[in-house]
Amino acid sequence: MGKIDEHWCNSCKHSLDKGKDKYVEFELVNDPSIIKDKKKPKKPKGIICQQCINKDPQLKSALELMVKAGNPNFNLNISCLSKGECENYEQSKQSGINCLHIAILGDKVYCKRSHPGIMHLPQEKAEVERLNRVLLNEYLRNLVKNPRLKELVDMSTFEKLLQNAYTPPSTVIEEQHEHLPKQP
Description:
Blueprint: E1 7-8, E2 15-16, E3 23-27, E4 45-49, H1 50-55, H2 57-68, E5 102-105, E6 108-111, E7 118-120, H3 125-145, H4 147-153, H5 155-163, H6 169-177
Antiparallel strand pairs: 1-2, 3-4, 5-6, 6-7
């Protein structure tokens, strides 16, 4: 069996090429008139090509209104408020950051010149977990590329290395006391 990825306009029924044609995909998610079965509400989906949108002025204005109703671009400004009194202040060339020495590590924004004070920023749990997985995978890929470290991953090599591992003093003392007579 092969895979088919067909698209067509729900209005004029013409086939659409995802890479070449311009179209709008839509999905109605919570319109009360379309929810018939409480267990499985219907979510009407569809595609309308650019030609059909251009033919209908009401549809075109409705789509333009929807596009404008979206979220604005995220715009952030991080400014060190101590710039007037700081001897190390250097203007940053990066937009949105006023000082070259502002840095971030995890959820902390701080000064790289070791000035006291940090600011904690909230982090999304799912995004932190995703980033940790990405970093772990990257670390493991680099670990396996190094031939000396690749040996450590091999269990037989790892077990041989453990044989010569450091023995804690408590174990040594217990072994020495086994040969001495017990005191009353």
